[in-house]
Every structure is written in C-alpha cells, then in structure tokens.
Amino acid sequence: QVQLVESGGGLVQAGGSLRLSCVVSERTISIANIEWFRQAPGKERQFVARITWTASTYYRDSVKGRFFISRDNAKNTVYLQMNSLKPEDTAAYYCTKNGYWGQGTQVTVSS
C-alpha cells in the first residue's frame, strides 16, 4: 500500500509563500504521475497541479505563474512551491498517486 505524507502548510499573509512537501513511501515517483488537490470548507476538491513521469507539469488556471510543482526522486518527495498566495488559496492540500491520498495539510492565507 502506498503512503503519502504531506507537510509544510500553515498560516501566511496574502502575498506570502509556502512550500508543501509530499513524501511517497514507494520509490517510484520518477515513473508516476503525482498530483496536488485542494479542498476548501464547503467546496468540492479541486485539481491544483500535476507532475508526470516525464516531468511535464500542469496547473489549474488560477495558480499558473504562482505555484510550481517539482520532485526530488532521491527523496521520494514532490513539492508544491506556492508564491503570491491569496486568501482564496485557503484550503486543505492533498497529494495523490494512483488513487492513494495523503491526509492533507492546511494552508490558511489571511488578507
């Protein structure tokens, strides 16, 4: 069973930055697509970013140019660098791989 553990969330002022980490238990992130999703209270979970096994990256429109996904294969870790944060980015952020999900990390952006 694959385990994913997110960390790096917290409280930040608008305009600030955070870097989320997702540690994957399997040494296969170099050959897998890994995604970040987020879910705000009372709202549906939404796609944020994806890094494919070929290292291609994709983002939802509202975070393009502000968020950047990357991975460190040696550390089995995928990162989400979030810059110029906005209050509407407030949500629990989850990473996922092949249907497995982490427990999430909370990001709160104050105005």
Report on the architecture of this protein.
The protein has about 110 residues and is mainly β. It is about 0% helix and about 50% strand. The protein is built from no helices and 11 strands. It has strands spanning about 5, 10-15, 20-25, 35-40, 45-50, 55-60, 65-70, 75-80, 90-95, 100, 105-110. The strands form 2 sheets. Strands 2, 4, 5, 6, 9, 10 and 11 form a 7-stranded mixed beta sheet that branches. The termini are far apart. The mean pLDDT is about 95.
Keyword list:
mainly beta, four-stranded antiparallel sheet, globular
Give the helix/strand layout.
Layout lengths: L3 E4 L2 E4 L4 E7 L9 E6 L6 E6 L5 E3 L7 E6 L4 E6 L8 E7 L2 E2 L3 E6 L1
Can you tell me the overall shape?
A: globular
Quaternary organisation: single chain
Helical content, roughly? under 10%
Radius of gyration: 13 Å
Poorly predicted parts:
none
Order of SSEs: EEEEEEEEEEE
Strand content: over 45%
Total strands: 11
Q: Helical region count?
A: 0
Amino- and carboxy-terminal Cα gap: 40 Å
Mean pLDDT: 95
